[in-house]
Recover the amino acids of this structure.
């Protein structure tokens, strides 16, 4: 585990964060590495100060530009699905948002690449990564539907916005025997699934029913 990131952030929330971890355990998250990543990343640091007191409730919160930071249980569940994918060191995330999920991934994997289509969100996530001293993360402002060819193939890909289908570029940029975790479906509720690649075959497992903001095309300020 990397050095405690909450030091010097001006809010003592270690105890509240441990309570959040206890709740995740009750909800069935049992991977120790994932639990300690959640315990070490200061979620309040990723939201506006006015709602920082809600940061350790198990709920989604607004991050501006009509986007949300995912509920901690869903972040933990998706992360656990990646950890359980086997030998994973290089991960691509689509939908950086505020960067909370990115920071969790950075605790667990050697190299984390993350793409965000809204420039202002990408910029503030970049600032947060710097303030937290996370050096194994690379962020990009762009359309995640296209993936990030330069660093492919990835061992795992996590998409934190809902799509009708898995974008074909993402499928191409995943290594054989890799795993994609993505919410599929568009209106209302979606199926959070993990897809395991075996050559040209894909094996799908349903993880949970979820509600994510949609995966959109193109970029925005
Ligand atoms: N993991 C994020 C969740 C943010 S919500 C967090 O912890 O905060 C989903 C994010 O996906 C939004 O910020 C949205 O702008 C972004 N998004 C939607 N479509 C995208 C696309 N095509 N490429 C990159 N990001 C996208």
């Amino acid at each position: 585990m990397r050095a405690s990131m909450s030091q010097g952030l001006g809010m003592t929330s270690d105890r509240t964060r441990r309570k959040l971890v206890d709740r995740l355990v009750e909800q069935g998250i049992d991977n120790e590495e994932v639990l300690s990543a959640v315990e070490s990343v200061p979620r309040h640091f990723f939201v506006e100060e006015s709602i920082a007191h809600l940061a350790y409730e198990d709920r989604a919160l607004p991050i501006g530009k009509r986007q949300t930071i995912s509920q901690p249980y869903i972040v933990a569940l998706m992360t656990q699905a990646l950890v359980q994918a086997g030998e994973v060191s290089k991960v691509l995330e689509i939908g950086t948002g505020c960067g909370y999920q990115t920071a969790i991934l950075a605790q667990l994997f050697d190299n984390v690449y993350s793409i965000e289509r809204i420039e202002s969100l990408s910029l503030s996530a970049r600032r947060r990564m710097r303030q937290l001293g996370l050096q194994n993360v690379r962020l990009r402002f762009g359309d995640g539907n296209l993936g990030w060819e330069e660093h492919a193939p990835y061992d795992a890909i996590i998409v934190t916005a809902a799509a009708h289908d898995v974008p074909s570029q993402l499928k191409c940029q995943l290594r054989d025997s890799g795993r994609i975790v993505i919410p599929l479906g568009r209106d209302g509720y979606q199926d959070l699934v993990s897809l395991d690649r075996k050559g040209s075959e894909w094996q799908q497992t349903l993880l949970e029913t979820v509600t994510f903001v949609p995966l959109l095309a193109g970029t925005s300020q």
User: Anything to note?
Assistant: Residues 63, 67-70, 94-95, 97-98, 100-101, 115-118, 121, 143-145, 160-161, 213, 215-216 surround S-adenosyl-L-homocysteine (CB under 6 Å). The two ends are 35 Å apart (CA to CA).
